[in-house]
């Protein structure tokens, strides 16, 4: 069905969008910060996506698309970089009211450092696999940057762990679960070839970079605005 990818996008954002108008804690008041961060981070990912699509590192099955393209990217892929960050930013926002923040839990700090080092080292080891190398390297360096900036990553990791089941469901469908063929296909010579069901393992870290990037710039913009007022 040609609307499958579009339906997945809309399904990811529908509940967070509707809940954004809850009067007591209205996320829509954060929209200006989200939109700016989404444009910046999304723009980076779209350039990355365009280059990889053009070179056949991954691609899209036209059977599940509306047929509207910008460059080599279907409109659904562009919406993906809005819908997913929105859902995650809303989740982060909700957790700030629902769960008291902990002062830099030591296990999260250690996990972040270890993960960053392992990712950077792995990117060098698999330098000849573009998806693996670029994803691991960029995420590893960004995690180290967050560590240096002394960012409290409690809500970051809490948000990421919370959305993982939804990630496996939506990304599973995109990569071929429950369908005759995948919506998004991958050139396995450019990744490790390790799949979680139908999902390349690199997708998890690609998603983490997308989510953490949006959360960081969203929160940075919000804090700077609040400091001026």
Notes on the protein architecture:
This protein is mainly α. The protein has 7 helices and 6 strands, in the order ααβββααααβββα. The protein has helices at 4-19, 31-54, 75-98, 106-125, 130-148, 154-174, 201-228, and strands spanning 58-60, 69-70, 73-74, 184-186, 195-196, 199-200. A hairpin with a 2-residue loop joins β5 and β6. α2 runs antiparallel to α3. The radius of gyration is 18 Å and the shape is globular. The model has no long low-confidence stretch (mean pLDDT 95).
- Please bin the fraction of helical residues: 55-70%
Mean pLDDT: 95
- Strand proportion, as a percent range, falls in 5-15%
- Widest beta sheet: strand line-up: 1-4
Distance between the termini: 50 Å
Order of helices and strands: HHEEEHHHHEEEH
- Based on helices, strands and strand pairing, what is the structural class? mainly alpha
Strands, count: 6
* Global morphology: globular
Q: Over the alpha carbons, how many angstroms does the gyration radius reach?
A: 18 Å
Total helices: the number is 7
User: Segments where pLDDT lies below 50 for 5+ residues?
Assistant: none
Largest sheet: 2 strands, antiparallel
What oligomeric state do these chains adopt?
single chain
Topology at a glance:
Blueprint: H1 4-19, H2 31-54, E1 58-60, E2 69-70, E3 73-74, H3 75-98, H4 106-125, H5 130-148, H6 154-174, E4 184-186, E5 195-196, E6 199-200, H7 201-228
Antiparallel strand pairs: 1-4, 2-3, 5-6
Helix pairs in contact: 1-3, 2-3, 2-7, 3-6, 3-7, 4-5, 5-7, 6-7
In short:
The protein has 229 residues and is mainly α. It contains seven helices and six strands. The chain has a two-stranded antiparallel sheet with strand order 1-4. A two-stranded antiparallel ribbon has the order 2-3.
């Amino acid at each position: 069905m040609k609307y499958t990818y579009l339906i997945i996008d809309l399904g990811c954002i529908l509940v967070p969008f509707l809940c954004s108008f809850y009067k007591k804690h209205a996320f829509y008041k954060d929209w200006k910060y989200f939109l700016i961060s989404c444009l910046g981070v999304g723009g980076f990912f779209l350039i990355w996506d365009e280059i990889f699509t053009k070179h056949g590192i991954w691609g899209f099955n036209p059977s599940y698309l509306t047929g509207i393209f910008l460059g080599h990217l279907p409109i659904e892929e562009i919406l993906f970089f809005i819908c997913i960050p929105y859902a995650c930013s809303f989740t982060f926002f909700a957790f700030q009211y629902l769960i008291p923040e902990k002062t830099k839990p030591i296990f999260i700090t250690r996990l972040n450092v270890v993960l960053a080092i392992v990712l950077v080292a792995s990117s060098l080891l698999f330098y000849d696999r573009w998806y693996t190398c670029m994803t691991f390297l960029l995420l590893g360096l960004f995690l180290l940057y967050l560590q240096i900036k002394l960012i409290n990553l409690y809500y970051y990791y809490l948000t990421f762990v919370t959305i993982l089941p939804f990630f496996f469901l939506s990304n599973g469908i995109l990569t071929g679960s429950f369908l005759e063929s995948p919506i998004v296909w991958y050139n396995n010579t450019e990744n490790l070839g390790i799949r979680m069901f139908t999902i390349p393992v690199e997708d998890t870290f690609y998603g983490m970079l997308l989510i953490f990037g949006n959360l960081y710039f969203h929160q940075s913009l919000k804090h700077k605005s609040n400091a001026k007022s």
